[in-house]
Here is the input.
Amino acid sequence: MAGRHRRSTTPGRSITRAGLAPLGIASAAVLAAAPLASAAPAQPAAPAAGGLGAPPCDDSADVCVDLSRKKAWLTDDGRATGDPMPITSGSPEDPTPTGTFAVQRKERYHVSKEFDDASMPYSVFFDGEGRAFHSGSRSSNSHGCIRLDTQDARAVFAALEPGDEVQIVR
Here is the structure.
């Protein structure tokens, strides 16, 4: 029965293996490293609670906005290039449109003539109605624009150029 386990009938004695050579320092090092060598690679973490997951837009979008989740992502080939950005969008009376748009122009220090000279820093206009991504308070709905925190508005302003694709979904 060489090479097979045999249980001792004497109480307190352990299982023995016939023909087992004494364990040396080199053998101990190999055995200690063996579990690491066979460990499976780490898997990416699951999406956080709330299920933000991947941006819900086509691979062609340079920025993706999900109005129902109140989030936006800068994207490259359909993959987010950073964390989701919290947004505020239009009210039911002045909704933010859904669809695919192209960035038309950018204005670092835009002031709205239509809405009482409201400051709209880091404006990136995406439709013919004057709607834009811009920095502003997210405590209330906009008149159809996508409002972002200042650092996020700066990132969107820096990343997008005229002609870049904007996708807005609900």
Summary: The chain is about 15% helix and 30% strand.
